[in-house]
């Protein structure tokens, strides 16, 4: 079964996530969850250290609206959100700063080159059109180059068959709607969707500090995806996604320069897309693709600003196999990024890369995987990174796995020219960040499949980490994160599933032994989900311990969300959800408030 998965998927499924699903339906037995995009080669998640998959069923059960909400439930991931609605939302993996998390949408890198760290803003990424989320923690530069020291988060949009509609209304004058339509068959598919979210929100600055005004958010997303098969050996596919967010934000007005209500606002337009030709010939599947993303951010305040950034990636990748035991991929890329600065000037960075990865079923129990990549940057020299991993099937359902890898990150455009710097010149000449990390995991699956779990121990070392200190950017000699991630899922019967996750994260600056900011030492979540003939839903509890933050310590918190759906007919569902069930007053980032108890009801239609 697993050999079939690795060989057939390598030649077919990698061309597009939808093909992977078709491959899985060829057998009567259920196949294990497979990572398709983030690993470049299909890999069974349970045998891949740091790999996790969230499918569309889990997304709907959880009732999460935005990607940041569901990512916060995963062990080792922490969300940094400066304002519940419209504030910048970024994700840290294993203590690494947000610029070290590479984000892909349909394989397109969408990190913002004009953001100071080169990080992606999750605040407007809705989950309505997302079919699956793949998370791969740990250094992945050998697969994806710069920006992947902490890990990779890959989103795949769904193919649509028929007509789908959704509407929801609730607290804080919140309205949400989505309309999607498409057609799909073996030869071709095309679908498009539009979604809209608006809310009066709450004050981004915590209301306990005397800030009663509301900060409004309006978000619109439009997307399309299609594929066409010329023959069994050639096809084209592509997608495009555009979103606009308009949000009120708070600032730091004079004379106190503390976070407070202001009339500041921000507007961002972002689009991303790709076009890909896939051709199977001479035992290889070749993919030729162009992906692009562009973002423009305008801020209206006492110090207005406009930032624009774009990224283009040309990629050739070839996938193949030799016998049933070996699968491999290799290729080349050219990436060009451009971003504007606070001065209005524009700067550019570019990288040319070659890469290769292979997986071998060494024995019936042992799988070995390796990857190597060479990146040649236009401005910061070249770097070679690698990663090796192994998974060993033990008796009684146990899997022992481990990985070691290296990573690097070139300075962002803002860092390279010392944007926002006001210290006396000369500014330090920055060196690229480099990293190495290892992890070991022990997983277990019961014979009847009703209980599984995994515990992972890891260490991530980052040398020359770039930080903003005393009005300029500097390299910190070394940071280190030690951590434990534990997770389990129990299928309790009667349609009930229980998922538990916990992470201990000790992230420190090795030069001072101080904890890194905005990384909670303890975090965990528990989700009790149920599925019946008509009724389904989930109760989710999430907790974080105290965390060091700029200006003090943000207190720990426990919050709960409840959501459910009732199927009236085969094509109509009623939905309801309650956020912050216990009306907990808490903050994810020190000084920025989160909503109290809020409730929403809606309807989903399928034709």
Short description:
With about 600 residues, the protein is mainly beta.
What does this structure look like?
By secondary structure, the chain is mostly beta strands. The strands form 6 sheets. The protein has a 22-stranded antiparallel β-barrel. Strands 3-8-9-6-7 form a 5-stranded mixed sheet. It has a two-stranded antiparallel ribbon with strand order 1-2. The chain is globular. The model is unreliable at about 1-30 (pLDDT under 50).
Describe the protein's topology.
Elements: H1 2-11, H2 17-24, E1 34-35, E2 43-44, E3 51-55, H3 56-62, H4 67-71, E4 77-81, E5 89-93, E6 101-105, E7 108-109, E8 130-137, H5 141-144, E9 151-157, E10 162-170, E11 174-184, E12 188-199, E13 217-231, E14 234-248, E15 265-281, E16 284-300, E17 305-322, E18 326-340, E19 346-361, E20 366-377, E21 382-393, E22 398-409, H6 413-416, E23 433-445, E24 451-469, E25 472-493, E26 496-509, E27 522-531, E28 535-544, E29 547-549, E30 552-554, E31 557-569, E32 572-579, E33 587-589, E34 592-593, E35 598-606
Parallel strand pairs: 6-9
Antiparallel strand pairs: 1-2, 3-8, 4-5, 6-7, 8-9, 10-11, 10-35, 11-12, 12-13, 13-14, 14-15, 15-16, 16-17, 17-18, 18-19, 19-20, 20-21, 21-22, 22-23, 23-24, 24-25, 25-26, 26-27, 27-28, 28-31, 29-30, 31-32, 32-35, 33-34
């Amino acid at each position: 079964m697993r050999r079939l998965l690795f060989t057939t998927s390598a030649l077919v499924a990698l061309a597009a996530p939808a093909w992977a699903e078709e491959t899985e339906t060829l057998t009567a037995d259920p196949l294990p969850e497979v990572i398709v995009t983030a690993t470049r080669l299909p890999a069974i998640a349970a045998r891949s250290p740091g790999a996790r998959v969230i499918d569309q069923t889990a997304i709907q059960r959880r009732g999460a609206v935005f990607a940041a909400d569901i990512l916060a439930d995963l062990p080792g991931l922490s969300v940094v959100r400066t304002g519940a609605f419209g504030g910048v939302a970024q994700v840290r993996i294993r203590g690494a700063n947000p610029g070290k998390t590479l984000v892909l949408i349909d394989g397109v890198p969408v990190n913002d080159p004009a953001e100071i760290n080169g990080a992606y803003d999750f605040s407007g990424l809705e989950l309505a059109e997302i079919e699956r989320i793949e998370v791969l923690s740990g250094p992945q530069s050998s697969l994806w180059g710069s920006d992947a020291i902490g890990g990779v988060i890959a989103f795949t949009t769904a193919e649509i068959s028929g007509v789908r509609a959704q509407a929801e209304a609730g607290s804080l004058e919140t309205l949400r709607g989505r309309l999607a339509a498409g057609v799909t068959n073996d030869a071709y598919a095309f679908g498009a969707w539009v979604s809209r979210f608006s809310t009066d929100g709450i004050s981004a600055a915590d209301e306990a500090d005397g800030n009663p005004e509301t900060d409004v958010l309006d978000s619109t997303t439009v997307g399309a995806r299609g594929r066409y098969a010329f023959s069994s050996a050639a096809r084209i596919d592509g997608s495009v996604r555009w979103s606009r967010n308009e949000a009120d934000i708070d600032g730091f007005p004079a004379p106190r320069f503390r976070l407070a209500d202001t009339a500041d606002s921000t507007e961002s337009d972002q689009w991303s897309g790709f076009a890909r030709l896939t051709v199977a010939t001479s035992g290889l599947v070749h993919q030729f693709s162009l992906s692009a993303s562009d973002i423009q951010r305008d801020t209206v305040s006492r110090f207005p600003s406009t930032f624009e950034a774009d990224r283009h990636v040309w990629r050739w990748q070839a996938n193949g196999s030799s016998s049933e035991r070996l699968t491999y991929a290799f290729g080349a890329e050219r990436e060009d990024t451009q971003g504007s600065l606070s001065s209005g000037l524009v700067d550019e960075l570019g990288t040319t890369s070659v890469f290769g990865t292979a997986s071998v079923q060494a024995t019936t129990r042992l799988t070995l995987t390796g990857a190597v990549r060479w990146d040649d940057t236009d401005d910061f020299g070249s770097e070679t990174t690698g990663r090796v991993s192994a998974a060993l099937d033990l008796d009684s359902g146990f899997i022992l796995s481990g990985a070691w890898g290296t990573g690097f990150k070139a300075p962002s455009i803002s860092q390279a020219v010392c944007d926002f710097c006001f210290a006396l010149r000369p500014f330090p000449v920055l060196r690229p960040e480099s990293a190495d990390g290892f992890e070991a995991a022990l997983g277990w699956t019961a014979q009847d499949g009703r209980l599984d779990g995994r515990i992972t121990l890891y260490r991530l070392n980052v040398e020359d980490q770039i930080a903003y200190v005393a009005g300029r950017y500097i390299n910190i000699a070394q940071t280190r994160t030690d951590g434990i991630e534990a997770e389990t899922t129990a299928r309790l019967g009667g349609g009930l599933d229980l998922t538990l996750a916990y992470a201990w994260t000790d992230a420190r600056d090795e030069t001072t032994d101080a904890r890194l900011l905005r990384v909670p030492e303890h975090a965990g979540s528990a989700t009790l989900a149920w599925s019946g003939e008509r009724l389904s839903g989930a109760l989710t509890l999430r907790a974080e311990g105290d965390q060091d933050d700029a200006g003090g310590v943000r207190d720990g918190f426990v919050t709960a969300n409840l959501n459910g759906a009732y199927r009236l007919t085969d094509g109509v569902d009623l939905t309801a959800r309650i956020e912050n069930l216990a009306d907990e007053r808490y903050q994810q980032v020190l000084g920025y408030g989160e909503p109290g108890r809020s409730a929403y009801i809606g309807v989903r239609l399928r034709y």
